[in-house]
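Cross-posting from the chemistry board since nobody answered there.

I work mostly on the small-molecule side, so proteins are not my area. We synthesized zinc ion and want a rough idea of how it might sit in this target. Sequence and SMILES are below. Is it possible to get a predicted 3D structure of the two together?
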Amino acid sequence: MAFDRRGRRGRGREGGDRGGEGGGFRRRREEPAQAEWVPRTELGKKVLAGDYSTLEEVFASGRKILEPQVIDFLLKGQLAEEVMEVTSTQRMTGCGRKMLMRAIVLVGNRAGYIGVGVGKAPESRDAINEAVLDAKKNIVRVRLGCGSWECGCGQPHTVAREVHGSNGSTHIWIKPAPRGVGIVAGDTSRKVLELAGVHDAWSFTKGKTRNVLNMILATIHALNSLNSLKRGVGSAAEEAEEGAGAEAAEAAPAGQSSVAEARQAPAGETPRGEEAETNEETGAN
Ligand SMILES: [Zn+2]
């Protein structure tokens, strides 16, 4: 069934005859999402050409994602969206008040990728769509692991270590928790952690925690700081998969990747070398 539909859609696109079959109106409405992607950035062209097969490789390349379609292409069918807030904003203009809807949307694959976006438009539906596109461009990778000494299972179900993040006056600390604890957090940060793929974690907050966007950003900053421990993106993923075992085997690829990165940016040679050493220690724990 699915194959059949896809086949027909393909033919329709080639022939330019979209209204030929019944239900042409419905087809049209879903067309924008399904429309063929013409990349406008160099990264987009490379992704479409198949130079990058995973998002991991894109992050490793250090390129900025400017087209949401890059995410759509690489994480097809994996992303979940969550509308966190829709509010109306007002602005005084020469001819009276101008009303806009403002939407905050989370996008995540529940397995290590999370992003937040904000969109504004006269209609809330358009604002949400804008926010989704924005969220895709802001996706960050979350280094999951088992950082809990009470658990030690080696599965990526919690954060790899305690992290702190803040935005404005909002602060959050996220601590690794053993399996079965669940997410101990407020509603907003819980949603962020869920969509990022964290199953168990303890958290503490400080400051103005009722501001949804600040809370989300603080949580994402905290999760993003898991990445700063290690620069070799590929090796971090390997470690998350392999867990605590095989320290010696892990130490080698970690060293290699940081050397490779240091070559790309010679200025950071010494600090990266140090980082690699600390990583080996964490791997052994
Ligand atoms: Zn565990």
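Reply from a structural biologist on the board:
Welcome over. Reading the output above for you: Residues 1-24, 26-31, 231-285 have pLDDT under 50 and may be disordered. The pocket of zinc ion is lined by residues 146, 148, 151, 153, 155, 157, 178-179 (CB under 6 Å). Happy to explain the token format if needed.
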